[in-house]
Amino acid sequence: MNLDQKLLVCEAMLARLDEACASAEAEVKHADALEQHIRRLLAHLEAEQSRLDEKIREVAAEQDGAGAPEQDEPLADMEQLMSRLRGVQARLAILVQPRDGAPYAIPDQGAWGAETSSLGAG
Fold first, then answer.
1. In a domain, 59, yes or no
2. What is the pLDDT of residue 98?
3. For the whole prediction, is pTM greater than 0.85?
4. Higher pLDDT, 73 or 11
5. 47: containing domain
6. What are the CB-based long-range contacts (under 8 Å, 24+) for 37-42?
């Protein structure tokens, strides 16, 4: 193989490497944008969880004051909803672990991602 042929091979390899680097850069940008989107969704979920926790406390306080047994069902439904919401948050947090490796923490709960349940569970 003469020098010109070797240079052509090297140029072709460099062109492929440039394409691969550009493709990898585009994938990293896409992953970063997706991670930011998931972080925003997690923030919204946390705010909704706080709102629902407050509502559960209000309903529980009303139930304690009224002593009406027919209010047991709505309270149980809200508690089940909160349990499902926390499970979704935990599974989403597994997907968005911070770069430093420290897990996220939900107030009044353990670290997000501590659950190892599958995404299909609920």
1. yes
2. 63
3. no
4. 11
5. 3-95
6. 38/92, 38/95, 38/96, 39/96, 41/92, 42/89, 42/92, 42/93, 42/96, 42/104
